[in-house]
Amino acid sequence: MKYEDIQKLQTEGQPKQIQNRQPGVEDGEVTPMPIFDDPNYKGSGKMKDKVVLITGGDSGIGRAVCVALAKEEAKVALAYRDEHDDAETTKALVEEYGGECLLIDGDIGEEETAKKTVEKAVKHFGRLDSLINNAAEQHYAEDLRDISSDQMERTFKTNIFGAFHVTKAALDHLQPGSSIVNSVSVVAYKGMPVLMDYAATKGALVALTRSLSENLVSKGIRVNGVAPGPVWTPLIPASFPKEQVEQFGTSSPMGRPGQPAELAPAYIYLASDDSSFVSGEVIHVNGGQVLNN
């Protein structure tokens, strides 16, 4: 995004707000609306006719990635839980840029649902070239004793088992030259005192990314990750108290949260052949936080 656009974002901020559902709804519920389309991003056909399955593609970072994939002429299979209106909006955005988008709903934390998600994508498009594991949820807790076993299991079920189940099913279809991109997080590297279960899942996903990369490198399949810092998405008002939502992202070195559109190019780079000599790596897109690990 252009510097003058970024300066405007730094001064606007976001008002107090909250949502009582996970992982949150974008359309008509988040103020201001997250920026998912950067008009300065011009596609160059680097994903032309590639089939990409992205989980959690209905809103937030996932929506921005879907828009960028459409600009790069990819075919998109968008998996989401039950946010039907958000998913339909994202599909319309993909089609607006001349792309094709298949919507697949269901809880990928369930193994059979994850398998069917991959099967539907492959049946519809005839192949699978790239997988982006982006679906996630997080829950605010100031004390470890406030995290129930059910909540811990639910967070791992979505964030880790969902990625595991979908990736496992996708491996039957990915070929040499294919790519897997996992959404990890800055909190996997620096921790987060009020997102302990979420941080634990993202730490596990970093380890899985590195290990799976070594496991698949001889097969010509690359595995990498993107680690967002504070990014303005529906997940934020769905997770934090109102007062913290108002101040969200202001402690970053850039003094503001990122916008989904600022993350999308990193995913395109790792999904495309531009990163043909990159595997087992994580790109940190976090507003200037230096992490040496």
Automatic annotation (TrEMBL):
Residues 1-41 are annotated as: Disordered. One of its GO terms (biological process) is bile acid metabolic process. SUPFAM superfamilies: NAD(P)-binding Rossmann-fold domains (SSF51735). InterPro entries: KR_dom (IPR057326), NAD(P)-bd_dom_sf (IPR036291), Sc_DH/Rdtase_CS (IPR020904), SDR_fam (IPR002347). Residues 50-235 form the Ketoreductase domain. Residues 8-22 have a biased composition (Polar residues). Belongs to the short-chain dehydrogenases/reductases (SDR) family. This is NAD(P)-dependent oxidoreductase.
